[in-house]
Amino acid sequence: MAYVIAISNEKGGVAKTTTTYSLGASLAESGKKILLIDLDPQGNLTLANGIEPGKAVKTSHDVLLNGLSITEAIAKTSTPGLEIVPASPTLIEAEQNLPLRSNYAFTLNNALRQGALVHEYVLLDCPPSMGALTYNALTAAELLIIPTQAEYFSAYALRDMMTLIRRVRRDSNPRLAYRILITLLDQRNRTHKVIREQLEQTFGSGLFQTVIEIDTRLRESPIIGLPITQYRPTSRGSQQYRVLAQELIEYVQQQ
Amino acid sequence: MAYVIAISNEKGGVAKTTTTYSLGASLAESGKKILLIDLDPQGNLTLANGIEPGKAVKTSHDVLLNGLSITEAIAKTSTPGLEIVPASPTLIEAEQNLPLRSNYAFTLNNALRQGALVHEYVLLDCPPSMGALTYNALTAAELLIIPTQAEYFSAYALRDMMTLIRRVRRDSNPRLAYRILITLLDQRNRTHKVIREQLEQTFGSGLFQTVIEIDTRLRESPIIGLPITQYRPTSRGSQQYRVLAQELIEYVQQQ
Ligand SMILES: Nc1ncnc2c1ncn2[C@@H]1O[C@H](COP(=O)(O)OP(=O)(O)OP(=O)(O)O)[C@@H](O)[C@H]1O
Ligand SMILES: Nc1ncnc2c1ncn2[C@@H]1O[C@H](COP(=O)(O)OP(=O)(O)OP(=O)(O)O)[C@@H](O)[C@H]1O
Ligand SMILES: [Mg+2]
Ligand SMILES: [Mg+2]
């Protein structure tokens, strides 16, 4: 049974997509079979894999709204051990239409449970909102990873995310755990230092010990259509996401 | 009649809120009466003005869903000449419920036309999505400012924004114009240089000449609850947003 991880934060631009891709590729590199699912109408995860979101034939939209099985929607990527269910811009309709169905929150969870997936981990990239797509991801997940910048608006968004977690645990997924990941960190920046300390005090073990620092190589890799671990294997970004992958594997083993 | 500007981009974290606040404060500083309207359920613009989004009594949610007049929802800010209609987290319901009403796209436009507003400019901060709230903002606006980073995912999002503009012009607001604003620029970064040049070639005069560079003072000012022009009046952020305000005033005069 695959271990399902949602990567979500209402706050925009905190490296949700970059984390889904880089963490997924690092897990695949360590020999695990990984499935990425792009739930964002922007389709950045799909694009980063060199697939044009508007042109993908079978997508997460078909899985959520048209009953397509997950296994039929899976596409290959250039990375061994890493597969993807691409997004399409029409996913925006799912935000509107899913809530009109009874028990809509379980749509993705049911699709994942029905398919005889061979993957050890499934990673769900979410849009920057708390609508039906994100709600579906949190209902299907064992773990929610919340990428956050050490900045004021991002730190404030964690309050809303905690409220959402409580709601999901009460209504649809009592087992949902979370871990916060500090991303885009500039070690020399005073605001980043101060807010990181505040997050460590407030959340303690709710934070990953691994921190992802700013590394311009991470901006470059989606242009080439490769994950950071293949584009610049010795970069700081690659190393830090590999350390994160190890920390995650240890966390999962302890559960 | 107030000149209405929407600040929107589906891409998250591109400085929509920071631009709305800093540009609004720069326009107020030059003597104009400015109204900010926070249309994002995150309420970052509200928060940056020192108002707790969950505690604001009259909000943009009441204007859009409960027929409250704009003038009744206006709150003062600490900046002379700058007022705000705050957001509340319940705005998320507007994303779901507005589209169920006939002609929902004109809700904000009608509210703005009914109120005898004394403001010269109205600035609308939008959430990172292309749902009902953003659609309402684009229907009400004369000008759409699209903040964008000089990075791959942000540049790609412009494609979706252009499609959205064509749709709004066809269905609800033929007069909608747009201008792209490059934000968070690091002049020393190679990706930023290359993508900025590509944007200049692709969009030409569709880009503001003013560019906003990275300035950590802009991260600090929302913590204090003041706009950059009051928090650090001589900072690079303040100067660049003042130049932007002048470029905007000239643009509006030429229309
Ligand atoms: N560690 C890093 N160092 C430098 N740039 C980064 C890093 N992580 C992400 N980026 C860049 O920052 C921008 C935002 O990251 P990304 O798009 O992954 O965030 P997101 O949370 O998925 O955004 P959205 O809310 O729009 O979905 C992207 O241009 C990305 O390439
Ligand atoms: N020029 C700048 N220099 C440094 N930091 C900046 C600059 N502009 C914005 N920021 C910071 O970058 C982050 C993103 O900016 P902001 O929240 O305004 O973007 P947004 O597009 O409104 O995000 P969202 O999509 O979540 O609404 C914030 O933490 C903000 O303080
Ligand atoms: Mg993303
Ligand atoms: Mg914002």
Write the layout of secondary structure elements.
Two copies of one chain form a homodimer.
Chain A: E1 3-7, H1 16-29, E2 34-38, H2 44-48, H3 60-65, H4 70-73, E3 75-76, E4 82-85, H5 92-97, H6 107-114, E5 121-125, H7 132-140, E6 143-148, H8 152-171, E7 177-182, H9 190-203, H10 217-224, H11 228-231, H12 236-254
Parallel strand pairs in A: 1-5, 1-6, 2-4, 2-5, 6-7
Antiparallel strand pairs in A: 3-4
Helix pairs in contact in A: 1-12, 6-7
The structure holds adenosine-5'-triphosphate (2 copies) and magnesium ion (MG) (2 copies).
Oligomerization category of the chains in this entry: homodimer
Structural class of chain A: alpha/beta
Strand share of the residues of chain A? 5-15%
Largest interface summary: A-B, 36 and 36 residues
How would a crystallographer describe the biggest sheet of chain A? 7 strands, mixed
Q: Which of globular, elongated, flat, extended, rod-shaped describes the shape of chain A?
A: globular
Bound molecules: adenosine-5'-triphosphate, magnesium ion
List the strand order in the largest sheet of chain A. 3-4-2-5-1-6-7
How much helical structure, as a percent, in the residues of chain A?
A: 40-55%
Q: Compute the number of strand runs of chain A.
A: 7
Gyration radius of chain A, rounded: 17 Å
Average pLDDT reading of chain A: 97
**H-E string of chain A:** EHEHHHEEHHEHEHEHHHH
Count of helical segments of chain A? Answer: 12
The separation of the N and C termini of chain A measures 14 Å
Which blocks of ≥5 consecutive residues of chain A have pLDDT under 50? none
